[in-house]
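Sample entry (473 residues):
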Amino acid sequence: MENMISSSKTRGSMAAIRRDIRSRIRVGLYPLLLLSLLVASFIFFWPQNDVSATDYDNSRYAQNDFSLPSANTVTIDSADEIVPPAPQAYDKNVLIQRGDTLSGLLLAQNIQTQDISALLAIPLVKRTLAHINPGKILNIHVNADQELTDLTYNLSPTQTLSVTRLDDNFDAKLTKKTPKVLPTVAAGVISSTFYDAGLAQQLPQKIILAATQLFSSKINFKRGLKPGDHFKVIYESSYVQNKVVSTGNILAMEISNDGKTYALIRHTDSHGVSRYYPADSKALSNAITTKNTFLRAPVHYTRVSSSFSMNRMHPLLAFSRPHYGVDLAAPRGTPVVASANGVITVKGQEGGYGNLIIINHGHGITTRYGHLNRFASNIHAGSTVKQGQVIAYVGSTGLASGPHLHYEYRVNNVAQNPLTVKLPLEANPISATEQKQFSHEVANYLAQLHSTPLIVVAYAPGLPQNNNNAKEA
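Predicted structure, serialized as tokens:
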């Protein structure tokens, strides 16, 4: 019992000792924490000198008697001053845009005003460059003194204006290039229309239209051609530097339709009259002359949108009145050609016709072309035009519900149906004295046509670089 009491007293005294020790630690820790807080506050809030790296660098430069360089300043020794480069001579091709003038273009290139004035004072320059065409190039050369020394401008593929400086003046001259006329060959297989097949082989629209007219009495080009029919043609092309600048006449052509082949050869007699003859010698008397013939349709049209009628309900006016021509629907901008040789008597706006051209073909025959979008740039009242020459472009001006060509054919001012009127054709047989020459021409042309593959992109055999255009079918 005594042992138990002694053990209990011992545990009690030990617990008291531990409590006493913890109490002492707490009492001693609080002053220590307070002292630490005071020291930290003293260090943080004590004022200090603000010596930055920049001040250090400044004091270092001051001690060494250096000037402090600025970040944006470059010190250059007077002996090494930068000298701007001397003006250089240069060539420049200036693209002409809509609304540009010669003086404005030259001023934009910093050409001196006295040079521009001297240039425009030259009659040839003033006459030829009064209207410069958008899309063309004006080539200039400026010397080291920034003076204009040379200027060239291509007026056309065959004409170039050249201006050269001579001291303080300029010398202008017009250089003309003589085109090289070469036979051009093309051939194609028809899958849908003759027009599409011709375009696929890069046949000019003028040749496509001419071929359609030449064979219109034998072939119905709207409904008669079938897939697999084919054509071969030789025609004239004028080349300048191996580029086509114009297209001439068909020299020979054959077209296969529904198992039959038709061929025509062009022959010019001793009087300068050209006619097309069938290649079959038995039909030499059936000559078709290009003199005084007319094209049935002077535009490549998609359909006849309105026929010739003496009592037609006008689609816009909503009442009946005569329709003195035929309306040939075609996309806006499609070329319109003269249906025969003649002289333009009217070019301008005429009431419901809109933009209108009237051509006098002589012998009381006139043709009218209405609703035109615009006129060809090289024609005016009094101009002489040839059959197949582009005179305007399809539009919808005047009283028109959509783009088409209104075409009239009049005899002594009496309207005739252009699609059915008997056209003035000459059927002059080839003379006996020229039959030998013609037979030789037929043999040569037929040999060329027969040796031509079925598919040939238009090319001139006389130009070596184009020889690879021919493709075997």
